[in-house]
Design brief:
- The structure is a single chain.
- The chain has a single domain, classed as Rossmann fold, CATH 3.40.50.
- The protein contains 8 helices and 10 strands.
- α2 crosses α6 and α3 crosses α5.
- The protein is globular and about 45 Å long.
Length: 261
């Protein structure tokens, strides 16, 4: 569907986006925390979310289907996977939405809105977006920073996540955070400094460590550190595609400014 068609359709009715049950049901806690991990700089969000899903043995409970989403079905080790999935921890306290590919710019608002409609129905009040801050040449170990509304900054500090002073969050994370502000949900963004052009498992590993503190979970980063070269080789093309979508965002008028910490 073209951008013109999307705008025309949106003027009369919302585009078709459906969250469907998949996998096995999990009884959710009263106020589960929602984590959003989509491809972006260094693929930090996606890699970190994937490691959390594996490390916590989270169960597939849902997926997003829509004609707005490109007809792509990822597979790893010969096993097909849904491209945008929802996983839940066994105790129902944590939800993760993960995507294996970057969304086209013109679909982002609609997908973000549908995700938060669904999350609100499930009792979610706290949303954490995990992203990379793309830099050309990183020096030293990746750092993780946070951003949130003023009354939420103390929680970041409590878990030793320093605040980022200035910058933009774009793409699906930006759309989710905007909706959190409008809907009065507690929205947080954790950002790891990452290589802009290639997968960055080291940045994802440091992100997982920050999430461990912030959400009080315990996920090992050993596989990310030991398999860096394999991860980079497997996900290199996806990182380039994420970079192309970032360029498309700039074509829509978004011009990134440096992050100040």
């Amino acid at each position: 569907m073209s951008k013109k068609e999307l705008k025309s359709k949106h003027s009369s009715e919302e585009p078709f986006i459906q969250i469907v049950a998949a996998g096995e049901p999990v009884k959710l806690a009263n106020e589960p925390v929602l984590v959003i991990g989509f491809p972006g700089p260094g693929l930090v969000g996606m890699i970190s979310a994937s490691r959390m899903i594996e490390g916590l043995d989270m169960k597939l409970i849902g997926a997003i289907r829509s004609p707005l989403i490109p007809p792509v079905t990822p597979f790893f080790g010969g096993i097909l996977r849904l491209p945008i999935r929802i996983h839940a921890s066994n105790d129902g306290k944590l939800l993760i939405v993960i995507s294996e590919f970057p969304l086209p710019m013109e679909t982002i608002f609609f997908v973000a809105s549908k995700i938060l409609d669904w999350a609100t129905e499930k009792g979610v009040k706290k949303v954490v977006c995990i992203e990379g801050i793309g830099i050309e040449k990183r020096k030293g170990s990746p750092e993780v920073f946070g951003a949130a509304e003023p009354h939420l900054l103390a929680e970041l500090e409590k878990y030793s996540v320093p605040r980022v002073q200035k910058g933009f969050v774009a793409g699906i994370a930006g759309a989710i955070l905007n909706e959190c502000l409008i809907r009065k949900l507690d929205g947080y963004c954790l950002l790891a400094t990452a290589t802009a052009e290639a997968p960055d498992p080291e940045a994802a590993a440091n992100m997982v460590l920050a999430i461990n503190r912030f959400l009080e979970v315990d996920v090992s980063i050993q596989s990310l550190i030991q398999n860096q070269s394999v991860i980079k080789a497997q996900l290199n093309e996806l990182a380039k595609e994420a970079r192309r979508e970032e360029q498309a965002a700039q074509d829509h008028g978004y011009r990134p400014i440096p992050f100040y910490v």
